[in-house]
Amino acid sequence: MIVDDEQEAIDLLQILLKENFPEILVSATARSSTEAIEKAFRKHPDLIFLDIKIDHKNGFDILDELNEENHDPHIIFITAYNQYAIDAFKANAIDYLLKPIEPKELINAVNKYLSHSEKELHLKNVLGLINKNKSKIRFNITNGYILIHPEEIVYCQSDGNYSEIYLNDNSKKVVCYNLKNLLKKLPQPTFNRISRYNIINKDYLTEVNRKKQICKLNTNQKEIQLTYSSKMLK
User: Fold this and answer.
1) Distances in whole angstroms, Cα of residue 40 to Cα of each of 81, 94, 158, 168
2) What are the pLDDT digits (tens) for 187-201?
3) Quick one: which of 58, 133, 155, 224 has the most CB atoms within 10 Å?
4) Calpha distance 166→168 (Å, rounded)
Protein backbone atom coordinates (compact mmCIF):
# COMPACT_ATOMS: atom_id res chain seq x y z
CA MET A 1 0.00 0.00 0.00
CA ILE A 2 1.22 3.52 -0.82
CA VAL A 3 0.25 6.53 1.31
CA ASP A 4 1.24 9.98 0.05
CA ASP A 5 -0.63 13.26 -0.30
CA GLU A 6 0.90 13.84 -3.77
CA GLN A 7 -0.52 11.80 -6.65
CA GLU A 8 2.67 12.29 -8.68
CA ALA A 9 4.70 10.64 -5.90
CA ILE A 10 2.27 7.70 -5.81
CA ASP A 11 2.44 7.30 -9.60
CA LEU A 12 6.25 7.40 -9.64
CA LEU A 13 6.54 4.81 -6.88
CA GLN A 14 4.10 2.50 -8.64
CA ILE A 15 6.18 2.73 -11.83
CA LEU A 16 9.43 1.99 -9.98
CA LEU A 17 7.89 -0.98 -8.19
CA LYS A 18 6.42 -2.39 -11.40
CA GLU A 19 9.78 -2.07 -13.17
CA ASN A 20 11.88 -3.61 -10.39
CA PHE A 21 9.49 -5.82 -8.38
CA PRO A 22 6.66 -7.05 -10.64
CA GLU A 23 5.83 -9.69 -8.02
CA ILE A 24 4.74 -6.99 -5.54
CA LEU A 25 1.05 -6.15 -5.78
CA VAL A 26 0.03 -2.59 -4.84
CA SER A 27 -3.34 -3.38 -3.26
CA ALA A 28 -4.26 0.23 -2.39
CA THR A 29 -3.17 3.86 -2.49
CA ALA A 30 -4.29 6.72 -0.25
CA ARG A 31 -3.82 10.49 -0.22
CA SER A 32 -5.22 11.28 3.24
CA SER A 33 -4.85 9.85 6.73
CA THR A 34 -8.55 8.88 6.92
CA GLU A 35 -8.37 7.04 3.59
CA ALA A 36 -5.10 5.37 4.61
CA ILE A 37 -6.49 4.01 7.88
CA GLU A 38 -9.73 2.81 6.30
CA LYS A 39 -7.97 1.04 3.42
CA ALA A 40 -5.30 -0.47 5.67
CA PHE A 41 -7.99 -2.07 7.85
CA ARG A 42 -9.79 -3.35 4.75
CA LYS A 43 -6.82 -4.54 2.69
CA HIS A 44 -4.42 -5.69 5.46
CA PRO A 45 -1.24 -4.80 3.52
CA ASP A 46 1.99 -6.53 4.51
CA LEU A 47 4.03 -3.45 3.58
CA ILE A 48 3.15 0.26 3.55
CA PHE A 49 5.17 2.96 1.81
CA LEU A 50 4.26 5.80 4.14
CA ASP A 51 4.76 9.54 3.74
CA ILE A 52 5.25 11.45 7.00
CA LYS A 53 3.60 14.83 6.40
CA ILE A 54 0.13 14.09 5.05
CA ASP A 55 -2.66 16.21 6.59
CA HIS A 56 -3.89 16.79 10.15
CA LYS A 57 -2.40 13.37 10.99
CA ASN A 58 1.14 12.40 10.08
CA GLY A 59 2.52 8.99 9.21
CA PHE A 60 3.31 8.19 12.85
CA ASP A 61 -0.29 8.96 13.88
CA ILE A 62 -1.55 6.55 11.21
CA LEU A 63 0.86 3.90 12.44
CA ASP A 64 -0.31 4.35 16.05
CA GLU A 65 -3.95 3.80 15.05
CA LEU A 66 -3.11 0.64 13.12
CA ASN A 67 -1.03 -0.76 15.98
CA GLU A 68 -3.79 -0.03 18.51
CA GLU A 69 -6.12 -2.34 16.57
CA ASN A 70 -3.53 -5.10 16.29
CA HIS A 71 -2.49 -4.28 12.73
CA ASP A 72 1.28 -4.31 12.48
CA PRO A 73 2.40 -3.91 8.84
CA HIS A 74 6.00 -3.40 7.77
CA ILE A 75 6.78 0.25 7.00
CA ILE A 76 9.10 2.00 4.57
CA PHE A 77 8.92 5.76 5.13
CA ILE A 78 9.26 7.94 2.04
CA THR A 79 9.45 11.68 2.75
CA ALA A 80 11.03 14.97 1.80
CA TYR A 81 12.09 15.57 5.41
CA ASN A 82 15.19 14.04 6.96
CA GLN A 83 14.57 15.11 10.58
CA TYR A 84 12.22 12.21 11.32
CA ALA A 85 14.70 9.40 10.65
CA ILE A 86 15.31 8.62 14.34
CA ASP A 87 11.55 8.47 15.06
CA ALA A 88 11.10 6.23 12.02
CA PHE A 89 13.61 3.67 13.24
CA LYS A 90 12.14 3.82 16.74
CA ALA A 91 8.91 2.77 15.03
CA ASN A 92 10.81 -0.27 13.64
CA ALA A 93 10.62 0.95 10.05
CA ILE A 94 12.31 -1.24 7.44
CA ASP A 95 13.88 1.85 5.85
CA TYR A 96 13.64 5.64 5.49
CA LEU A 97 13.92 7.06 1.97
CA LEU A 98 14.17 10.71 1.02
CA LYS A 99 12.41 12.27 -1.94
CA PRO A 100 13.14 12.38 -4.80
CA ILE A 101 13.37 8.61 -4.69
CA GLU A 102 16.59 7.07 -5.95
CA PRO A 103 15.73 3.76 -7.68
CA LYS A 104 18.80 2.07 -6.19
CA GLU A 105 17.80 3.06 -2.64
CA LEU A 106 14.24 1.85 -3.25
CA ILE A 107 15.53 -1.50 -4.54
CA ASN A 108 17.75 -1.89 -1.45
CA ALA A 109 14.84 -1.04 0.85
CA VAL A 110 12.42 -3.48 -0.77
CA ASN A 111 15.05 -6.25 -0.82
CA LYS A 112 15.58 -5.61 2.88
CA TYR A 113 11.84 -6.04 3.42
CA LEU A 114 11.69 -9.23 1.31
CA SER A 115 14.62 -10.75 3.21
CA HIS A 116 13.08 -9.77 6.55
CA SER A 117 9.69 -11.11 5.46
CA GLU A 118 11.13 -14.53 4.49
CA LYS A 119 12.86 -14.87 7.86
CA GLU A 120 9.70 -13.75 9.66
CA LEU A 121 7.57 -16.25 7.73
CA HIS A 122 9.99 -19.06 8.59
CA LEU A 123 9.95 -18.06 12.26
CA LYS A 124 6.15 -17.81 12.22
CA ASN A 125 5.89 -21.32 10.75
CA VAL A 126 8.25 -22.70 13.38
CA LEU A 127 6.37 -20.97 16.19
CA GLY A 128 3.10 -22.20 14.72
CA LEU A 129 4.31 -25.79 14.87
CA ILE A 130 5.51 -25.29 18.43
CA ASN A 131 2.19 -23.75 19.48
CA LYS A 132 0.25 -26.49 17.72
CA ASN A 133 2.06 -29.13 19.72
CA LYS A 134 1.87 -27.34 23.04
CA SER A 135 -0.65 -28.80 25.43
CA LYS A 136 -1.94 -25.99 27.62
CA ILE A 137 -1.37 -22.25 27.93
CA ARG A 138 -0.85 -20.58 31.28
CA PHE A 139 -3.10 -17.58 32.00
CA ASN A 140 -2.74 -15.39 35.08
CA ILE A 141 -5.85 -14.84 37.20
CA THR A 142 -6.38 -12.63 40.26
CA ASN A 143 -5.36 -15.32 42.78
CA GLY A 144 -2.84 -17.35 40.73
CA TYR A 145 -3.02 -18.93 37.28
CA ILE A 146 -4.97 -21.46 35.23
CA LEU A 147 -3.96 -23.79 32.38
CA ILE A 148 -6.19 -24.04 29.29
CA HIS A 149 -5.71 -25.94 26.05
CA PRO A 150 -6.32 -23.54 23.13
CA GLU A 151 -8.69 -26.04 21.49
CA GLU A 152 -11.04 -25.57 24.45
CA ILE A 153 -11.38 -21.81 23.84
CA VAL A 154 -14.36 -20.81 21.70
CA TYR A 155 -14.07 -17.04 22.04
CA CYS A 156 -12.80 -14.28 24.34
CA GLN A 157 -14.48 -11.07 25.38
CA SER A 158 -13.05 -7.80 26.67
CA ASP A 159 -13.77 -6.77 30.25
CA GLY A 160 -11.69 -3.61 30.63
CA ASN A 161 -8.20 -4.59 31.81
CA TYR A 162 -9.41 -8.19 32.10
CA SER A 163 -10.78 -10.67 29.56
CA GLU A 164 -13.39 -13.40 29.75
CA ILE A 165 -12.48 -16.71 28.10
CA TYR A 166 -15.48 -18.82 27.04
CA LEU A 167 -14.80 -22.56 26.77
CA ASN A 168 -16.45 -25.34 24.79
CA ASP A 169 -17.91 -26.85 27.96
CA ASN A 170 -19.99 -23.66 28.36
CA SER A 171 -17.87 -22.37 31.26
CA LYS A 172 -16.16 -18.99 31.57
CA LYS A 173 -12.76 -17.95 32.98
CA VAL A 174 -11.69 -14.38 33.81
CA VAL A 175 -7.98 -13.70 33.19
CA CYS A 176 -5.71 -10.73 33.94
CA TYR A 177 -5.06 -9.54 30.36
CA ASN A 178 -6.67 -6.94 28.15
CA LEU A 179 -7.78 -8.27 24.78
CA LYS A 180 -4.69 -7.04 22.91
CA ASN A 181 -2.27 -8.81 25.26
CA LEU A 182 -4.46 -11.91 25.43
CA LEU A 183 -4.27 -12.30 21.64
CA LYS A 184 -0.47 -12.38 21.88
CA LYS A 185 -0.70 -15.52 24.04
CA LEU A 186 -3.00 -17.38 21.66
CA PRO A 187 -1.70 -19.45 18.70
CA GLN A 188 -1.90 -17.82 15.28
CA PRO A 189 -3.64 -17.86 12.87
CA THR A 190 -6.29 -19.92 14.69
CA PHE A 191 -7.38 -16.99 16.83
CA ASN A 192 -8.61 -13.79 15.21
CA ARG A 193 -9.67 -10.51 16.80
CA ILE A 194 -12.98 -9.60 15.13
CA SER A 195 -13.84 -6.37 17.00
CA ARG A 196 -12.77 -4.20 19.90
CA TYR A 197 -14.53 -6.64 22.19
CA ASN A 198 -14.00 -10.16 20.89
CA ILE A 199 -11.45 -12.73 19.75
CA ILE A 200 -12.70 -15.94 18.16
CA ASN A 201 -11.27 -19.40 17.62
CA LYS A 202 -11.79 -19.83 13.86
CA ASP A 203 -12.03 -23.61 14.31
CA TYR A 204 -15.53 -22.96 15.76
CA LEU A 205 -16.55 -20.45 13.07
CA THR A 206 -19.40 -21.75 10.88
CA GLU A 207 -20.90 -18.66 9.25
CA VAL A 208 -20.18 -14.99 8.53
CA ASN A 209 -23.20 -12.82 7.72
CA ARG A 210 -21.76 -9.73 6.04
CA LYS A 211 -25.13 -7.99 5.78
CA LYS A 212 -25.76 -8.19 9.53
CA GLN A 213 -22.02 -8.22 10.38
CA ILE A 214 -22.44 -11.30 12.55
CA CYS A 215 -20.18 -14.31 13.11
CA LYS A 216 -21.72 -17.62 14.10
CA LEU A 217 -19.73 -20.07 16.21
CA ASN A 218 -20.90 -23.59 16.95
CA THR A 219 -19.97 -25.95 19.76
CA ASN A 220 -21.66 -29.14 20.86
CA GLN A 221 -23.32 -27.07 23.56
CA LYS A 222 -24.84 -24.18 21.57
CA GLU A 223 -24.62 -21.63 18.74
CA ILE A 224 -23.02 -18.27 19.53
CA GLN A 225 -23.50 -15.07 17.55
CA LEU A 226 -21.01 -12.22 17.79
CA THR A 227 -20.92 -8.87 16.02
CA TYR A 228 -17.75 -8.28 14.02
CA SER A 229 -16.00 -5.24 12.55
CA SER A 230 -15.40 -5.40 8.79
CA LYS A 231 -12.08 -3.64 9.44
CA MET A 232 -10.82 -6.47 11.63
CA LEU A 233 -12.27 -9.81 10.51
CA LYS A 234 -9.83 -11.51 8.13
Assistant:
1) 24, 18, 24, 33
2) 888 999 999 999 999
3) 155
4) 7
